[in-house]
Amino acid sequence: MRIVVLVSGTGSNLQAVIDAVAKGSLPVEIAAVGADRPGTYGVQRSADAGLETFEVNFKDFSTRTDWDAALLRKVASYAPDYVVSSGFMRIVAPGFIDAFEGRYVNTHPALLPSFPGAHGVRDAMAYGVKVTGCTVHFADAGVDTGPIIAQTPVEVFPEDTEDSLHGRIKVAERELLIKVLADLAGRWDSVQA
Ligand code: GAR
User: Fold this and answer.
1) Domain of residue 75, CATH code
2) Which burial class, exposed, middle or buried, applies to 50 when counting CB atoms under 10 A from its CB (0-12, 13-18, 19+)?
3) Which residue lies with its CA nearest to atom 3 of ligand 1?
4) pTM score, whole prediction
């Protein structure tokens, strides 16, 4: 199963995927890692691991439509079976969703449909929930919407800061993402057989 991973930031969840693949415990091929802006640590980590990388810099395009088309072209050029949004902080166009329907997987640091968006951890804390968590789901054209594949709950402690809580969520998120990808790879192999 070939995957392309999209990142916007540090790519710590991506690193866990890279490590699992390197250890032989996740039977997927990371065809490429791409970002929507230059200089992300996620792309740096991937280059360090010897992976193919690309950047489709949002700021290099005069229209949103042009960026959408360039991202789709670039990702499709790797012929991935699945595309994984791992901290990719942009909504993709409906055309992207159509091209990878049921094959575009997103992770989110909250129990969707609660607290979607760029500040899932902060928003959950502000609401005062005692349990939050992470979600891996098939993304559609909305903000962190689409069919849920798996979730893990994470308890919120009274002394938590956004960083401490997000840190614990990411530990759960990495494990969940790897498990979901392994499940999809199992299914993918049986589809191909
Ligand atoms: C992850 O917690 C991911 O769920 C979140 O960004 C973080 C990326 O961390 N994504 C979203 O909030 C999407 N709405 P990382 O770059 O260290 O893997």
Assistant:
1) 3.40.50.170
2) exposed
3) 87
4) 0.96
